[in-house]
């Protein structure tokens, strides 16, 4: 189905929508001047009578306007969110430079806010089937930014300071890069129709992020099988990851993108949060980054319990 399929949020595509979309995907945006040429290309048996031609012309023009409107909306939304991403990193870079917040806390707040604000921005994109690809441009541009700076092809001191532990450019090619790749995956594969991407991002950004913040501050009692992690960090991850997941699901449900049976959903999300927290608490010996293991565990568990 081409970009032209205008899908209303929360409303599954109907036969009419699909046939309309299929019509558009083959003939979309035929400008009025091209219409006679366009009908000349139609097989005789489907050539439309003059009276029908006017109806079709109106349908094609209105549909083309719809497609054009959706593309404009998605382009504007993309520009807005790209600007938001730059503004977020710059803000925390300034706060760190002025010693208002310490670098470690700044990095974790960027970790928490970037993905959750990106997720929260999804409803400003259009209802068309191509909207998710426009949305994925935002993490893709940041992926490019991370690679360029990680390879020292460019030097964005603000970015490096905001997202690295020790200010080394090569650090951008691990945790931060995996992070934006997960954002791209969730936007394209799961988008607004499935709870899986929403929960996975809530756990990676909210859960894993808060574990670090709370664990560093209150994590005196360590987990028996992993002295690098603490009960305070893991319990915080479970609770905050669960709450942020439920909050995001409610946000998208209120906007009509998903419909959930909430008692069952609470149980399911609690299970996802438990599994993700357990995986995050395991000793990784630096091989598998949390920005891979946590969202992956969340996706697999969510797919098993939600089924879509
Ligand atoms: N369940 C957890 C998770 C984290 N921490 C604390 O937070 C620190 C960093 O946690 P970690 O998840 O390992 O962060 P990293 O992924 O290494 O950091 P970054 O995300 O910055 O790469 C740990 O050393 C520990 O002090 C904790 O106590 N309990
Ligand atoms: C420090 C991070 C991960 C390490 O665990 C996060 C890296 C964040 C990226 C550099 C920036 C990502 C921006 C988002 C794709 C878009 C945010 C938009 C929103 C409106 C602020």
TrEMBL record:
Keywords: Chloroplast, Kinase, Membrane, Plastid, Transferase, Transit peptide, Transmembrane, Transmembrane helix. Coiled coil: none annotated. It is found in: Plastid, Chloroplast membrane. The chain crosses the membrane at residues 59-89, 109-125, 172-191, 235-258. One of its GO terms (molecular function) is phytol kinase activity. GO terms for cellular component: chloroplast membrane. It catalyses: phytol + CTP = phytyl phosphate + CDP + H(+). It is an enzyme of class 2 (transferase). GO terms for biological process: vitamin E biosynthetic process. The keyword Transit peptide applies. Its main location: plastid. Its EC number is 2.7.1.182. InterPro entries: Phytol/farnesol_kinase. Pathway: Cofactor biosynthesis; tocopherol biosynthesis. It is a multi-pass membrane protein. PANTHER family: DOLICHOL KINASE, PHYTOL KINASE 1, CHLOROPLASTIC. Belongs to the polyprenol kinase family. This is phytol kinase. The lineage of its organism: Eukaryota, Viridiplantae, Streptophyta, Embryophyta, Tracheophyta. The gene is LOC105174170.
């Amino acid at each position: 189905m081409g970009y032209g399929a205008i899908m209303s949020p929360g409303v599954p595509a109907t036969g009419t929508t699909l046939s309309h979309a299929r019509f558009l995907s083959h003939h979309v945006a035929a400008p009025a001047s091209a219409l006679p040429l366009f009908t000349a290309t139609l097989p005789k048996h489907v050539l439309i009578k003059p009276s029908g031609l006017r109806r079709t012309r109106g349908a094609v023009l209105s549909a083309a306007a719809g497609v054009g409107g959706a593309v404009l909306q998605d382009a504007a939304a993309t520009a807005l969110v790209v600007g938001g991403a730059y503004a977020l990193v710059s803000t925390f870079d300034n706060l760190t430079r002025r010693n208002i917040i310490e670098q470690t806390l700044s990095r974790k707040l960027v970790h928490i806010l970037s993905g959750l604000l990106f997720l929260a921005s999804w409803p400003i994109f259009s209802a068309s089937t191509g909207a998710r690809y426009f949305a994925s441009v935002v993490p893709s541009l940041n992926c490019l930014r991370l690679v360029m700076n990680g390879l020292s092809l460019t030097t964005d001191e603000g970015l490096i300071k905001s997202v690295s532990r020790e200010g080394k450019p090569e650090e951008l090619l691990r945790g931060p890069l995996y992070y934006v790749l997960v954002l791209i995956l969730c936007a394209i594969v799961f988008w607004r129709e499935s709870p899986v991407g929403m929960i996975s991002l809530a756990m990676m950004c909210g859960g894993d992020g808060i574990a670090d913040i709370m664990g560093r501050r209150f994590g005196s009692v360590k987990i028996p099988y992993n002295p690098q992690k603490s009960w305070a960090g893991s319990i915080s991850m479970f609770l905050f990851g669960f709450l942020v997941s439920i909050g995001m699901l409610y946000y998208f449900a209120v906007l009509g993108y998903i419909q959930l049976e909430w008692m069952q959903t609470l149980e399911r999300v609690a299970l996802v949060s438990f599994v993700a927290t357990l995986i995050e608490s395991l000793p990784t010996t630096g091989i598998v980054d949390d920005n891979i293991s946590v969202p992956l565990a969340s996706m697999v568990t969510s797919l098993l319990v939600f089924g879509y």
